[in-house]
Amino acid sequence: MKCPICHTHSLNKVNLETGLSAHQCNQCFGHWVPSENYWEWLDRRQQQKQRHQPAPIRLNVGQSLLPVVDNSTANFCADCDRLMTKTRVGRGLNFYIDRCGYCHGVWLDQNEWENIQKMDLHYQIHYMFSSAWQHSVRHEAYAKRATPA
Ligand SMILES: [Zn+2]
Ligand SMILES: [Zn+2]
């Protein structure tokens, strides 16, 4: 497995959340999240919710976002080497994440996962690539431009 940005075998296994393992590049510090890891984690969370265990309330949503240097290159999947597509996160986060359309793994540059988590959007990464999400992000950007400063 190669880092999509550095093109070196520099990915190490890390835990992003309890039950969610990913691979982090030890050069650029981005994260590679294989889709099966993500879905397993989401499924388990869904089962917990059905057992009436409420999700912890986060009081610090949106606070102290970390600096992001978004990659602007076309990148190839860490797992299957196919070209990935970019989608804009929106909801107050002005960067793009990359996803492989074949194996559905997701690449996040340094601090992107952390900021998505801070905005409490980390349970919705799979929706970010849907046309409904993208439509609302475009609408959000348009509304911002239309508002006089
Ligand atoms: Zn890297
Ligand atoms: Zn792939």
Automatic annotation (TrEMBL):
InterPro entries in the record: TF_Znf
Domain of life of the source: Bacteria
Record-annotated Transcription factor zinc-finger domain positions: 2-43
Protein name from the UniProt record: Transcription factor zinc-finger domain-containing protein
